[in-house]
Amino acid sequence: MEKWQFYFMIGSGIYLLLLGITMVIKKGLSRGIGVYNVLVGILSIVGATVAKSKGDPSGKIFSVFTVVLVVSFLMFAILKGAMKKR
């Protein structure tokens, strides 16, 4: 794992944790999304730490993390679009 990938995963994890905690405090649909963000944030930090300590030369952990971020973005965009139509 390259150095920038490690810092990207740590930074994203911290951001998702803070965003998730803020959303959990709110009520309604944001609470469920907040819990999801907290979980992804924790897994991001754990994944970066494991990849850095054990070594991940092929970058599989970072690739999985990137796919999770893209799928989450698409899922939330579709959900937001569906909520606006109501």
Write structural notes for this entry:
The chain is an all-alpha fold. It has one domain (3-85). Helices cover 87% and strands 0% of the residues. The chain is built from 3 helices and no strands. It has helices spanning 3-25, 29-54, 60-85. The longest helix is centred in the middle third of the chain and has 26 residues, at 29-54. The mean pLDDT is 87.
How would the blueprint of this fold be written?
Elements: H1 3-25, H2 29-54, H3 60-85
Helix pairs in contact: 1-2, 2-3
Radius of gyration: 14 Å
**Silhouette:** elongated
Percent of residues in beta strands?
under 5%
The share of residues in helices is over 70%
Transmembrane segments: 6-25, 32-49, 61-79
Keywords: Membrane, Transmembrane, Transmembrane helix
Please name the defining characteristics of this protein.
about 0% strand, single chain, mainly alpha, elongated, 3 helices, about 90 residues
Quick rundown:
The chain is mainly α and 86 residues long.
